Amino acid sequence: MWCLMDDVIENVLNEYEQRAEKEDTVIAELYSRQQMLQRRDEFLLSVGRHTATLLNILVKDSEAKRILEIGTSYGYSTIWLADAARATGGRVTTLEVQPNKVAHAKSQVGRAGLLSFVDFRVGDARESLAALDGPFDFVLLDLWKDLYIPCFDLAYPKLAPGAIIVADNMLAPAVTIDEANKYREHVRRHRDIDTVLLPVGSGIEISRKSS
């Protein structure tokens, strides 16, 4: 049975989760006022504990070594993926367009003792993806939803046989459901991909490339 986290990592994660809890009420009000798009970069918007735990287990159980995170944000899921990479002998490549978010993520990943397992790339995710060689064993898609399909298409040729792709926010928030549905329909057009929607956290689509 996998030991998910040591005390040092847990302390860092608890700080993230306390911040997320404080932000939840503000975010709900912004969505109701349709102001979220203007201020979305201020907030953590993490995958949450349940989804992050599943990501960690999936990476460890599949023994994925080449891990790609598309959308670092402030580094919450990066820590969970890096912990898994340490267990598998792998490494996380994480992509983020906002330098201030990367700086915060680097600091937190360093505090968690996992910096040597993460390669941070700053810039437009599509440009960063085009420059990466791959292949990748595990991919997390968690950036603005209108970029899910373009980023999937760029990552797809760089997937190893048996690679797992997880896309977050498939069921929430409501304002992104249309984009989420388009992504799920797009993935299902690929005959070499098996995929399933799970009601974990904000909803995740887990897809696996068969060959």
Model description:
The chain is α/β, with parallel strands linked by helices and 211 residues long. It has 8 helices and 7 strands. It has helices at 7-32, 36-39, 49-62, 76-88, 99-111, 125-131, 148-155, 177-187; strands at 66-70, 91-96, 118-122, 136-141, 159-167, 193-198, 204-209. It has a 7-stranded mixed sheet, sandwiched between helices. The protein is globular and about 40 Å long. The mean pLDDT is 91.
Briefly characterize the structure.
The chain is α/β, with parallel strands linked by helices and 211 residues long. It has 8 helices and 7 strands. Strand 1, helix 4 and strand 2 form a beta-alpha-beta unit.
Task: Spell out the key features of this protein.
7-stranded mixed β-sheet; single chain; alpha/beta; 45% helix; 8 helices; Rossmann fold
Placed side by side, the strands forming the largest sheet appear as 3-2-1-4-5-7-6
The helix/strand class is alpha/beta
Helix content percent band: 40-55%
Determine the oligomeric state from the structure: single chain
Number of structurally distinct domains: 1
* Contiguous helical run count: 8
Based on DSSP secondary structure assignment, what is the total number of beta strands? 7
Approximate strand percentage: 15-25%
User: What is the CATH domain class?
Assistant: Alpha Beta
What's the N-to-C terminus distance? 29 Å
In CATH terms, the superfamily is Vaccinia Virus protein VP39
Taking all Cα atoms into account, the compactness measure Rg is 16 Å
> Which descriptor suits the 3D outline?
globular
Order of helix and strand elements from N to C terminus: HHHEHEHEHEHEHEE
